[in-house]
Design brief:
The protein is an alpha+beta fold and about 400 residues long. It folds into 3 domains: about 110 residues, Acyl-CoA dehydrogenase/oxidase, N-terminal domain (Butyryl-Coa Dehydrogenase, subunit A, domain 1); about 110 residues, Butyryl-CoA Dehydrogenase, subunit A, domain 2 (Beta Barrel), CATH 2.40.110; about 150 residues, Butyryl-CoA Dehydrogenase, subunit A, domain 3, CATH 1.20.140. The chain has 11 helices and 8 strands. Strands 1, 2, 3, 4, 5, 6, 7 and 8 form an 8-stranded mixed β-sheet that branches. Helix 7 runs antiparallel to helix 8. It is globular and about 80 Å long. It starts with 16 loop residues before the first helix and ends with a helix. This is Acyl-CoA dehydrogenase.
């Protein structure tokens, strides 16, 4: 996948990707606490992402996008997460799905339609995969969502949960089983405004509250036959795909690393400004606090190297194995959680006060554990591989 041109700046040159992302993150941070408190979806943030061209950062140039790769995507997602991580999660799913469109060879007219809509800033897509009984498809099993083939098209019925970003989605990549004599499993592309779709506002979580990852009910939703964009026999899905595994692992890793960096920044500001009466100097002067900040810096430095190196390998056509991608995700998210926990432990009550952002960062970063693949699955796969089982 080609990378966008990001020239060195001159006086009249447009801002670089990093500068654009940093400016938007600072803007989004102003309202992040309110979105967390209310659980309201950050629609205005997506207007700004569209204006900046970030919805089409990895969309092919032939469709009007920027043609970026995973290096650019992780920079954008990690940067936006420092301001408002729910926005960053929805953005990461946009990038993951558009990367899949290219990699999996969707019908040309649909690939172009979604690409040009993203470039125009009017289209967001995410996959709807998880179900109440099935849980995450990554752990095996067939979806209960059924795609029934009829002369007029596919009729899709089912119940999806954890539908991240549903208030703003234009397209739903629905994971379904066909009703054929030999069932196939895969993705049916469904317009989010199609008749028969109902959103049940069920999302009320500890963290990442503004993602609005509600339940979605599909009741006999009709889509054209060519919207079955990636159907395969069930056995064909048992072998993870290196490219998609890497994109998913690194985008999720970058997101929660961004949350940890915001927590680190607040912690450093707290240590510099807090002057206990019995000490007569800022907490930052204490060796114990300096050691703690150094420990956080070590965790985040490892994250930066892992994300940058693996993303570069993917863009160069050398994606890590799915097992290695899982280990990178496990390590990066574990480091992010550990970094925030260090800050929380050493700030005492202020760190857990809802008046301070560290408490919100802590709730958000803990959500890293729920993303596929979960830590136990990663360790099991790596262990079995090492043992030759």
């Amino acid at each position: 996948m080609a990378r966008p041109d990001l020239p060195l700046r001159s006086i009249d040159a447009p801002p670089s990707l990093a500068e654009t992302v940093a400016a938007l993150a600072a803007e989004f941070a102003v309202t992040a606490a309110e979105h967390d408190r209310s659980g309201a979806f950050p629609f205005a943030n997506f207007d700004r992402l569209a204006e900046a061209g970030l919805l089409s950062l990895i969309t092919p140039r032939r469709f009007g996008g920027h043609g970026g790769g995973l290096q650019e995507a992780t920079l954008a997602v990690g940067g936006i997460a420092r301001g408002e991580p729910s926005t960053a999660l929805v953005l990461s799913m946009q990038y993951l799905q558009h990367a899949s469109i290219e990699e999996r060879g969707w019908p040309a007219h649909l690939a172009e339609k979604l690409g040009r809509e993203a470039a125009a800033g009017v289209s967001v897509i995410n996959a709807l995969r998880v179900e109440p009984e099935l849980g995450s498809p990554a752990r095996g099993g067939l979806p209960a969502t059924i795609a029934r083939r009829t002369p007029e098209g596919w009729r899709v019925s089912g119940h999806k949960i954890f539908s991240t970003g549903i208030p703003i989605l234009s397209w739903l990549a629905v994971w379904a089983t066909t009703d054929e004599a030999e069932p196939r499993v895969g993705t049916i592309l469904v317009p989010a405004d199609a008749p028969g779709i109902k959103v049940v506002e069920s999302w009320n979580q500890l963290g990442m509250r503004a993602t609005n990852s509600h339940d979605v009910i599909l009741d006999d939703v009709l889509v054209p036959l060519d919207h079955a964009v990636d159907l395969r026999p069930p056995a064909a899905w048992r072998v993870p795909e290196p490219g998609k595994s890497a994109w998913s692992a690194l985008l999720i890793g970058a997101l929660y690393d961004g949350v940890a960096r915001s927590a680190r920044d607040w912690f450093i500001g707290f240590l510099k400004s807090r002057v206990p009466a019995n000490l007569g100097a800022a907490l930052a002067t204490l060796p114990r606090m300096q050691d703690a900040v150094g420990e956080i810096e070590a965790l985040l430095a490892v994250n930066a190297r892992l994300i940058a190196s693996a993303a570069r390998d993917v863009d160069d056509g050398r994606p890590p194995s799915p097992s290695e991608s899982g280990l990178i995700k496990l390590t990066v998210t574990g480091n992010a959680i550990a970094a925030v926990e260090i800050a929380v432990k050493l700030t005492g009550n202020p760190g857990l006060s809802r008046a301070n952002p560290l408490e919100r960062h802590y709730r958000d970063v803990l959500c890293a554990r729920i993303h596929t693949p979960q830590d136990d699955s990663v360790r099991l796969a790596a262990g079995r591989l090492a043992l030759g089982l």
